[in-house]
Structures are given as structure tokens and as C-alpha cells.
Amino acid sequence: MAFEGLADRLQNTMQKIRGKGKVSEADVKEMMREVRLALLEADVNFKVVKDFVKKVSERSIGQEVMKSLTPGQQVIKVVKEELTELMGGEESKIAVANRPPTVIMMVGLQGAGKTTTTGKLANLLRKKYNRKPMLVAADIYRPAAIKQLETLGKQLSMPVFSLGDQVSPVEIARQAIAKAKEDHHDYVLIDTAGRLHIDEKLMDELKEIKEISNPNEIFLVVDAMTGQDAVNVAQSFNELLGLTGVVLTKLDGDTRGGAALSIRAVSNTPIKFVGLGEKLDALETFHPERMASRILGMGDVLTLIEKAQANVDEEKAKELEKKMRTASFTLDDFLEQLGQVRNMGPLDELLKMMPGANKIKGLDNLQVDEKQISHVEAIIQSMTKEEKEHPEIINASRRKRIAKGSGRTVPEVNRLLKQFEDMKKMMKQMTGMQQKGKKKGGFK
Ligand code: GDP
User: Fold this and answer.
1) pLDDT of residue 444
2) Residue nearest to atom 16 of ligand 1 (CA)
3) Mutation to probe ligand 1, out of 106, 110, 116 (largest number of atoms < 8 A from CB)
4) pLDDT confidence tier of residue 396, bands split at 50, 70 and 90
5) For residue 115, how far is its CA from the centre of ligand 1 (angstroms)?
6) pLDDT in tens, 63-92
7) In 10 A of CB 132, how many CB atoms?
8) Relative to the CA of 320, which of 46, 292, 401, 430 has its CA 20 to 30 Å away?
9) How far is the CA of 114 from the centre of ligand 1 (A)?
10) Nearest Cα to 103, choosing from 203, 208, 212, 241?
11) What per-residue confidence (pLDDT) applies to 153?
12) Which residues does a 6 A CB cutoff place in the pocket of ligand 1?
């Protein structure tokens, strides 16, 4: 994940000032020197760094901090607020046209991830906002682009409007919007052509598409790995085309994160989404405050909760809660739980969103062994229905059969059964305690 270096350095700096009962001007100066270096090293634009340091210094030496009872913490609060502000303050919403369809033009240089992001965004619009998007293949120059979008459309079971590569992109856009109206699509996502560099011909074409399609949003897709280049590209596109938002891709790589921290300030365009992987669900709404919180090691509990809500079926959760209370939780339930946690994404990424996670030694290098989970799943799947409901009947010969069926060893089967038993015991104790507590409180 991006920002690791920056997060480490900023958190070390903050640590020094956190508990201070008194913060002098010299302390602030010393801290800001370190913050400045950390930001520059993360490839944040130097003008942005200068402004940021100035603002934080002024506020930190000001009344609001010096006179407070906990000046150390106040300084950190100032840093967090300014970091949030730098990345755009409030998160920005995606436009909705008064009269559908809402038209979104996707633009960007080749290789930035434009076509992939078009698919991801359509997926997000449908999944999160219940919309019915249509994709439009208007990149007629890159030989494989139309095919790529069509493949994405198939994966998503979503229509892709294409007229091949012999019709002009402007005409494609015009006909696509008419077709979307006819078919009652509420969003139209136009995948336009990219180039290796910004050139006049490309810009003229994009301007024409803009004119004919009158888009509600023009999103520029930029690659976070290209650092300051991404910032420059955003600035140029904004000047020539007038952007409404940026999608920053490949933030899952080990980019230093400078682009994310500079784009808003330099190009005056908010980051609306970030790409965090190649899969179609790896696109997230960009929340400046949550990102600032993550960088400063305060965790990102909101995202974690949202992920859980999106992946856990409420009815099932209630049922599960009841089973836990009545201690009738079976191995099948356990299997289902594993599946739900897995759907939330890679476990090590989830763990890193916990507050203070960066303070846990070794978490950086932690690779949660997803294989282990598959092994547990394989073992449970090799059991019969009866065994899953009444694991106490699993004797030595059954254990041998289960091990063989799942391709695991008998000790592994034993370990899993033991863990499951322990878990059930714990549940019993907990519900016992709850009931006692209730009695004390006077409930029947
Ligand atoms: P385009 O030329 O801008 O349309 O770029 P593509 O959509 O073809 O993407 C170029 C490459 O970047 C592909 O291999 C994508 O899978 C990959 N890619 C796109 N977005 C992301 C992302 O957020 N993370 C990662 N790791 N790869 C991405």
C-alpha cells in the first residue's frame, strides 16, 4: 500500500510531540523540519510542502494550541486537519443529471488504467448506488481497447456500445447517448482514447466529444506510480478540458503517495476515486479525512465497517448471533463466516486499517497466510453433514478419512476440531456471563 514510508516518518515525528504538556516554538520548528522532509521524500510537490508547513506552523504556534491543556495532541490535530484539507477536505460526490442519463467522460494517458477504471466505476455505480450504467467504446485508436471494454462488459453483464473503429468517436458518443436514453440507462461512461503524451489532436477530439455529449463529469485517470508526472498531467488536462475529478490508480503499489497529496492543491481538481488493484471491485471512493487518518496511524475504522456491511448479510448475521447465544453454532456456520471475512479483501490490508496497527511490530511484513484459510475450508468441506453438526462423533477413523479427503494431515484436522471446541466453550461462557449480568440488572 502507498504511503508506508510517509506514514512511518510522520508517526515517529508525532510520537515525539504527542505527550508534551508544553510545546515551545522551537519544538514546533523542529517538528516541522521533519514533516517537511517526510513530505518531500514522499514526492509531494515542493510548493505544496511549503504551503502546508507554513499553515501548520502558524496554527501550531497560535493561541488555539499553545493555550490548550494538551498542546501536543492539539498539534497533531492541526496536522490531521491540514492534511485532510490538502487532499480536498470534504469528500466530493458523483454528479447526477436532472434528466438521465448522467454522462461521464473518462480521459487519460495510455496505460494509466482508463479502460479498467471505466469498468470498475460502472461496477461501483451499480453495486453501491443501484444504477444502471452503459459503457461506450470510444477509443478507436488503440487496437485492443474496444475488445478490452467488451470483455469487461461481459464480465459485468453490462452493455457496451460500440460502432467498431471506423466511425469517429464524436459520432459514437452521440449515438451512444441516444441509445442509452432509449434503453433507460441512467449512467453513460465514455471510454475515450489515450495517447502516450498530451497532444493537440487528442485534446481537440476530447473537446469535440465534450461538446456533443455535454458530460456531467469529466474524470481524468492517472497512475499514482508516476508521481509528479501524474500531477502535471492533471494540471494540463484541467487547463485544456476542465476536469471535475481525478481517479488515482495503482495506489496498491508501493508508490510514495506524493501524487495523492499534491493533485488537489496543484491542479485544483479533487480526487474522487482511488484504484487499489486490478480486479473489478478494486475501486474506492476517496475520503480525504480517512486517508489522513490512515497516514497518521489513527486507523480507518469507517472503511472497515463499510466493508463489513457490504459483505455481511444482515439476516445471516442475526441468525448467527442467535446461534452463538444458544451455542448451536456449527462447523458449517464457521465455514460461512470465513467466507464472509474473505470477501472483505486481503486480511493483511484489513488489519492495517485498525487504529495503531502500525505500532504492532512486524505487521508491515505480515503476510496473512490465505492458504491456511483454504486448508481450514477444505477440511470442513470434507466432512459429512452430520459431522459438521455434531463434531463430537468424529472419531479416529473419521479424522483419517477427512484428512485424506481434504489433502491435509490428521494433526491439522485435530487442531481445527480443538479450536472449534474451544471457541464454542468460550461462547457458552460469554453468554453465561451476559445472562448473569442481565439478572443483576433486574431483568427477568
Ligand atoms: P488504459 O490504457 O489507460 O486504458 O489502461 P488499462 O485500463 O488497459 O490498464 C493498464 C494496466 O494497469 C492494466 O494491466 C490494468 O490491469 C492495470 N491497472 C489499472 N488500474 C489498476 C490499479 O488500481 N491497480 C493495479 N495494480 N493495476 C491497475
Assistant:
1) 33
2) 278
3) 116
4) very high
5) 7
6) 777 777 778 778 888 888 999 999 988 877
7) 17
8) 401
9) 7
10) 212
11) 97
12) 108, 110-116, 194, 249-250, 252-253, 275-278, 282
**AA identity, residue 212:** I
Contact criterion met (CB below 8 Å) for 151 and 144: no
ipTM above 0.90, yes or no: yes
d(CA 99, CA 267): 30
Kind of pairing between the strands at 245-249 and 160-161? unpaired
Residue identifier of the C-alpha nearest atom 28 of ligand 1: 278
pLDDT of the residue at 374: 84
The angle at the Cα of 290, spanning 265 to 278, to the nearest 5 degrees, equals 85
**What pLDDT, on a 0 to 100 scale, did the predictor assign at position 254?**
79
Q: Is 80 exceeded by the pLDDT of residue 105?
A: yes
Between strands 133-137 and 160-161, the pairing is parallel
Residue among 4, 216, 202, 259 nearest 101 (CA): 216
Among 331, 212, 272, smallest CA distance to 88 is for 272
**pLDDT above 70 covers what percent of the chain?**
85
DSSP structure string for 189-210: EEE----SS--HHHHHHHHHHH
Q: Where are the beta strands (DSSP E) in 138-216?
A: 160-161, 187-191
Give the lowest-confidence range in 11-15, 121-125, 271-275, 391-395: 11-15
Q: Which DSSP state fits 94?
A: P
